[in-house]
């Protein structure tokens, strides 16, 4: 009996591991659920979810015996948690195993943007270094005044790395945390006023949409830089683009965007923006750990054991 639906673009290795562990039916996209024969849909009690279109009440309604949606990723903003809870469906995610990779990438974005590493590399590769001499001066980063919006699992790892860079650390979250003297700001605008670089490590979803608002961006000012590894939705992207184009914001390092991968083409024309294709957790080792945790949650569900990382 088929019990698990694997939705999304799994690698060959991940697909094979799912097939070895479960009676598993693969589907490329959410919208294909409706086309499955009813007896098959009725057998599904678990979904291994790696989709992008969204998994909401409509998808759940097609799977009358669904009890678990095991998400591949810590961010579960594409799953309707309220609809799941209302139907007695538990959602799990893959927290912690990706913290290091995502924090590493945030630091790399900061370094690449501030030290103009893409432009400096192009300077050397094009022969201009040999012909015209040294690359132009850029910005000292160690010791900077930095702010973190969202001091959760990933935000904390970013902060720990920035501490090693001798930075003055400020942060905003819904509640003050126990920290080694980092300064808490209850108001994100006040945080932006106090720092030159803002790292965004919030959860995505409706509650944090546009959280880094036009006002926060204005408070950061023309020397300010935004690094975002959370979700495109957490920033007022139009306001950020306006500020970047007008020189009212010095730059940005971004791994996440609205409407990715069809991102706003205005980004491509901005030399002060470092763009990454949402690859924060994209190392071989971390993706393997995420896939394993997803399978472990499914296995726990099917054997009646406690789920490892439930979110509702
Ligand atoms: P986490 O531990 O839950 O931390 C999230 C932070 O967001 C917390 O500080 C929390 O504040 C804050 N927050 C949550 N809801 C909020 C609200 N309504 N208003 C204001 N602040 C709110 O999550 P995490 O594991 O660090 O992951 C953070 C996010 O990173 C994920 O949700 C995902 O979207 C993103 N991510 C991106 C990549 C990538 O490839 N770029 C990879 C993994 C994750 P409190 O501390 O006050 O609760």
Automatic annotation (TrEMBL):
Pfam families: 2-Hacid_dh (PF00389), 2-Hacid_dh_C (PF02826). The keyword Metal-binding does not apply. GO terms for cellular component: cytosol. Keywords: NAD, NADP, Oxidoreductase. GO terms for molecular function: glyoxylate reductase (NADPH) activity; hydroxypyruvate reductase [NAD(P)H] activity; NAD binding. Residues 46-312 form the D-isomer specific 2-hydroxyacid dehydrogenase catalytic domain. It comes from the Bacteria. Residues 108-280 form the D-isomer specific 2-hydroxyacid dehydrogenase NAD-binding domain. Coiled coil: none annotated. The keyword Acyltransferase does not apply. InterPro entries: D-isomer_2-hydroxyacid_DH (IPR050223), D-isomer_2_OHA_DH_cat_dom (IPR006139), D-isomer_DH_NAD-bd (IPR006140), NAD(P)-bd_dom_sf (IPR036291). Belongs to the D-isomer specific 2-hydroxyacid dehydrogenase family. This is Lactate dehydrogenase. It comes from Marinovum algicola.
